[in-house]
Amino acid sequence: MTRKAGALIAAVLTALLLALAVLLVGVRLIGLTPYTVQTGSMVPQYPVGSLIYVRHVAPEQISVGDAITFVMDAQGQVATHQVWQVDTQTRCFYTQGIANIGPDGSPVHDGQPVPFGNLVGRPVLCIPLLGYLAAWLTTAPGRCATAALLLCALVFDLLPGAAQKRSPNRPGVVPALGPASKPKT
Length: 185
Description:
By secondary structure, the protein is of the alpha+beta class. It has 3 helices and 8 strands. Strands 1, 2, 3, 4, 5, 6, 7 and 8 form an 8-stranded antiparallel sheet that branches. Strand 4 and strand 5 (about 90-100) form a beta hairpin. Helix 1 runs antiparallel to helix 3 (about 140-165). The longest helix has 24 residues, at about 140-165. The protein is elongated, with a radius of gyration of 27 Å.
């Protein structure tokens, strides 16, 4: 493999890893938290396998019709549903999955209200399919693949330059090796 091909492979791997780092972790620096959509309750707005980016907002900024991301239970499970009622007296949201439709065609409301304190924020961006990758990267094989990509990028970037020896008389020229090379006597 030529040095140019190795450098190109290293650049592509590095760019891929950098893009993933920004999309999955770096967005936190600007106040966004990524979540993977795991169910179809909000299709077509948020397809299964999408990565949604959620920005924290105050409960007072939420209106009927907004999608919100909230903590559902004591185990910390998170969901994103549409608000159909805001109760400022009890400080709760009433939500529904827009794809959860009853036999009569009416929306099926969630069974429990969402306390204002459970609000995580409002989704501001959705990237279809990226959630599948984000979820896989949190598994053991995904972490191993990420480490392998990092290692490959380092090898393709560093190894070709370290393996080539430069001629002291002619920089940039690799001395000939093998039978045609004769040592000076």
